[in-house]
Amino acid sequence: MKTVKTLLTVSALAVTLSAASANDTNKTQVAPKAQPTKSAHEQISKPACNDVVTKGLTYVYVEEGTELSLKDGTIVYSGTPLKATKDGSYEINGFIGKDKTKLYATKNLNLLFAQSKNIKADGEKGTLIVKINKDDTEANCEESWASSADMFYDKCTKCHAAKVVGDHTMLEWEGLYGSMKSFAKPTKDEDALISRFLKAFAKDGILKEAE
Ligand code: HEC
User: Fold this and answer.
1) Is the CB of 180 under 6 A from ligand 1?
2) pTM reported for the whole predicted model
3) Helix/strand/coil (H/E/C) assignment for every residue in 127-154
4) Exposed (0-12), middle (13-18) or buried (19+): which is 197, by Cβ within 10 Å?
5) Inter-CA distances, 180 with 7, 85, 157, 160, Å
6) How confident is the model at residue 53 (pLDDT cuts 50, 70, 90)?
7) Ligand 1 test: best mutation among 156, 172, 177, 190, most atoms within 8 Å of CB?
């Protein structure tokens, strides 16, 4: 009798063990299924600039933050498109704010390109000539916006998949981002990077990829 009881216990233990290892196998099979989401995320983690719009331009490149201060007091913002002039300076074209010291990307005065006393106004449009070190420029549009894009994907994919930036206008993003900010809790610098990224690549942004 005693022997039989021992045998039963051992076989019960064996069943438990094999069930446990079957469970382990299940787990390792489930894990790779979650992978595609991550690699899809990585594929889209660099924004694509509209080649037509960006042809022949170079961009303000700021290593940290979004502002580049120049000697004459002018501030230019990361990712701003620059047109090289013959004498080695750069021209920034945009729309001018009421006080004539701010140059914006589009007519709705939503995305800031530069702040300066030297903007030449022509109606609602404005032109600014700046001298910028080559180190502070980047010929590749995507590269110049990469840190903003990274910040967006880092802060804005924690709860849901990345939303398509080009699905919303600049104004829509102002509202949407405004309400998501309380979730994402960006610092001031992170906030500037994300908000510039959303506006630049919005449906009516300057860099939205051609469809
Ligand atoms: C703490 C979680 C959380 C974070 C972080 C977060 N969101 Fe959301 N977001 C939500 C929830 C919940 C919804 C509503 C459900 C949905 O649409 O997925 C939502 C919805 C949205 C929508 C759709 C809203 C609509 O009305 O169509 C957009 C766009 C969006 N988020 C953008 C962002 C952006 C940009 C960021 C980064 C600044 C961000 N989210 C960060 C939780 C979050």
Assistant:
1) yes
2) 0.79
3) EEEECCCHHHEECCHHHHCHHHHHHHHH
4) buried
5) 62, 41, 11, 11
6) confident
7) 156
